[in-house]
Amino acid sequence: MKRNNLEQAPVKKQVSKSVLLGAAFLMATSSIGPGFLTQTTVFTQQLAASFGFVILISLLLDVFVQINIWRIIAVSGLRGQEIANKVLPGLGVVLAVLIVIGGLAFNIGNVAGAGLGLNAMLGMDPIKGAVISAAFAIFIFLFKEAGKAMDKVAQAAGVVMILLMLYVAFTTSPPVGEAIVNTFKPEHISIFAIVTIIGGSVGGYITFAGGHRLLDAGVKGIESLPDVTKSSVMGIVVTGIMRVALFLAVLGVVSMGLTIDPSNPPASVFKLAAGNAGYRMFGVIMWAAAITSVVGAAYTSVSFIRSFHPAIEKYHNWIIILFILVSTLTFALVGQPVKILLLVGALNALILPLALGTILVAAYKKDIIGSYKHPLWLTITGGFVVIIMGVLSIMTLFEQLPLLF
């Protein structure tokens, strides 16, 4: 029996490489949505070269978050909500409700972003563009092997976005030397920018996107941890490349003394950098960022309720499709509900410390992780993120509440 296992190991590893890459890109492209483009542009405009420091700190903290969560999901063989329910009965339901509500609300924004992307790319009406984009996302989940189709779409979209972003960054001739110096010795530090960027990169459903994808593909157990760690770091690296490329593109525009249009900052950067062709490129990037976020949000949000009833598990692809339809209809009929998005944005900031805190507790419960020993350095760094993000997200929530009434 042992020989057979050894003979089959290379085949298993070959299959898992494709899945690991897909999980990394699913996590990365889920985080690279319309909000990502706007946040990076606005903060670069405010902090100039010092935004490099924000990117560095956020990427380091993102790595601590992702490695902790993905490892415990893999070792336990359980999804986030199942782990939470084992830590404290009912906590998984609370976490699932927060993530599903947040994912649904933000998906309205993602669908809107896809419509705006097609508008910039082809001049199409945004609502019509949103409906066509939603149809494309739904088509992915009509495949029998929806997971593999989702992996391929995420990888292709990620590569296209990176190449276009690097091209625009190159055309603006940013002061790279100044950016490097300020990355390690910043002139300005913005805690708010760091918190916002971390929340946008690994907040809400994004934290679990790749981990749940690996679990669904059968990648689990202590023996899978080296590959799981590689995949989680790869996802952060892809996100980082996109963030740095956009940062440099905006920095180049700002350094030239050009004025960025506050009504649509990222689109303005691309137009200033490369004229109408740049604006079309922005459309491609916006659509790719939005459509992958639509897919990632729907897939991960529904993965949080799959274990609650056998019927949900059986028909989860159809429920994902329903999730996308509801998001699209809400945008088409009502438009973006700004107040809801503000409230959910504030609540979404609480999900990261709650989710990571739960995972860290689970890392020391034998009935969840068995004989696995969680590295102390991961516990310490993860606990640091929980405390910092917990305090700052509560402060953000109280700041946002008065704006809603």
UniProtKB/TrEMBL annotation:
<keyword id="KW-1133">Transmembrane helix</keyword>
<protein>
    <submittedName>
        <fullName>Manganese transport protein MntH</fullName>
    </submittedName>
</protein>
<keyword id="KW-0472">Membrane</keyword>
<feature type="transmembrane region" description="Helical">
    <location>
        <begin position="156"/>
        <end position="177"/>
    </location>
</feature>
<feature type="transmembrane region" description="Helical">
    <location>
        <begin position="126"/>
        <end position="144"/>
    </location>
</feature>
<feature type="transmembrane region" description="Helical">
    <location>
        <begin position="317"/>
        <end position="334"/>
    </location>
</feature>
<dbReference type="Pfam" id="PF01566">
    <property type="entry name" value="Nramp"/>
</dbReference>
<feature type="transmembrane region" description="Helical">
    <location>
        <begin position="280"/>
        <end position="305"/>
    </location>
</feature>
<feature type="transmembrane region" description="Helical">
    <location>
        <begin position="87"/>
        <end position="106"/>
    </location>
</feature>
<dbReference type="InterPro" id="IPR001046">
    <property type="entry name" value="NRAMP_fam"/>
</dbReference>
<keyword id="KW-0812">Transmembrane</keyword>
<feature type="transmembrane region" description="Helical">
    <location>
        <begin position="232"/>
        <end position="260"/>
    </location>
</feature>
<feature type="transmembrane region" description="Helical">
    <location>
        <begin position="47"/>
        <end position="67"/>
    </location>
</feature>
<dbReference type="GO" id="GO:0005886">
    <property type="term" value="C:plasma membrane"/>
</dbReference>
<dbReference type="GO" id="GO:0005384">
    <property type="term" value="F:manganese ion transmembrane transporter activity"/>
</dbReference>
<feature type="transmembrane region" description="Helical">
    <location>
        <begin position="189"/>
        <end position="211"/>
    </location>
</feature>
<dbReference type="GO" id="GO:0015086">
    <property type="term" value="F:cadmium ion transmembrane transporter activity"/>
</dbReference>
<dbReference type="GO" id="GO:0034755">
    <property type="term" value="P:iron ion transmembrane transport"/>
</dbReference>
<feature type="transmembrane region" description="Helical">
    <location>
        <begin position="376"/>
        <end position="398"/>
    </location>
</feature>
<feature type="transmembrane region" description="Helical">
    <location>
        <begin position="340"/>
        <end position="364"/>
    </location>
</feature>
